[in-house]
Structure formats: C-alpha cells, structure tokens
Amino acid sequence: MRVMGVDPGLTRCGLGAVKGRPGAPLSLVKVGVVRTPADDEIGARLVAIEAGIERWLDEIRPDAVAVERVFAQHNLRTVMGTAQASAVAILCASRRGLPVALHTPSEVKAAITGSGTADKQQVGTMVTRLLRLDAMPKPADAADALALAICHVWRGGAQSRLAEAAAKAASATTTPAAYFRGRGRAGYPRGTAK
C-alpha cells in the first residue's frame, strides 16, 4: 500500500509518502513541503498548495491519502489556515477518486510512539527509526506528514478491510426497502388476504 500523508498548513504544508503493509517494514517514497509566502493573498496561497499537492499525486500515485484532522487551537487564524489547506488536500485526492482518511494528532502520535501526548521530537525520532533514515526529516511538518502516512498504513489497512467486510455483509442481507418492494402497505405480499 502506498500512502501519502498531508500535514496541512498555509506557510508550510508537509507532504510525505511511504509504502508498506501492517506488520512489515515500511519504506520512504518521498518527503518534503509546499511553501507559500505569508504576505501573499489567501487565494494565491491555496492555489500554490493545490498545485504542489497535484504534482505529488501525479508523481507518487498513492493508493490513499491521510490528512491531519484539524483540531481546535487557541489561535483562530492558525486553525482557519490549517482547515483551508486541509480542504485543498481532501479535494485534490477526492477529485481523483482516492480514499481520504483523517487522523487526529493524538491518534498519529499514539500509533507512532505509543503515546498520544508525544512531542514533535519524539515523533520525528520514531519516523526516522521506522523508515531507517540517516537523519530526521526537516522541517517538522515533513516528519509529521510521514507519521500520518505510517499511521494510515498501520491503522487504515485494518479499517479498510473492516469497512469492506461490513459492506459485503450489508449487501448480502435484505434491506428494509428491498423487503417492502412489491408488498402492500401493511407489508404483506400484494394480492394476499390480510
């Protein structure tokens, strides 16, 4: 499975891609950031982020995209910029029909380090070890994007299999609409005595 992780942000949008499967060693595909100048208009910044993400999607050709779920912070302006960059990433992936998963920062930290309260240094250190890299990816946004991708490989694969199994089970059972199709108002087959 090849997963692209996106750590959304307006100034630096972290991007990282890994390939692997649960229980097997992972490998780095690519890591980096899309940068936009803080003094540019918001529209131009979002267009630049979209162009960067589209280039990555063309090159990486991921099976899924994992985006950090935006959470409430004290700085509303930061939250809005993060949410806007997140929406661009979701849109780019969805336009291509790619599955998109949202993972909270604490889910990612717990998956990577075993603690939902780990700091950026701990996450970066574990990403470096898990991918057998010579040095920690810089800036931290890039390491966070890789952590998102790793989290999704480990958690998303199992979640996808569960969703597929649930969908198969649901299609195998009779839905209420299918049951009542061709039946009268009381639920009896048409033309039978009540």
Explain what this protein looks like in three dimensions.
The protein is α/β, with parallel strands linked by helices and 194 residues long. It is 50% helix and 16% strand. It has six helices and five strands, in the order βββαβαβαααα. The chain has helices at residues 42-60, 76-95, 105-113, 120-130, 140-172, 176-180, and strands spanning 2-7, 12-19, 27-35, 64-68, 100-103. Strands 3-2-1-4-5 form a five-stranded mixed beta sheet. The model has no long low-confidence stretch (mean pLDDT 87).
Sheet of most strands: 5 strands, mixed
Distance between the termini: 56 Å
Q: What value does the average pLDDT take?
A: 87
Q: What coarse outline follows from CA principal-axis ratios?
A: globular
Tally of helical segments: 6
Structural class: alpha/beta
Topology (SSEs and partners):
Layout: E1 2-7, E2 12-19, E3 27-35, H1 42-60, E4 64-68, H2 76-95, E5 100-103, H3 105-113, H4 120-130, H5 140-172, H6 176-180
Parallel strand pairs: 1-4, 4-5
Antiparallel strand pairs: 1-2, 2-3
Helix pairs in contact: 1-2, 3-5, 4-5
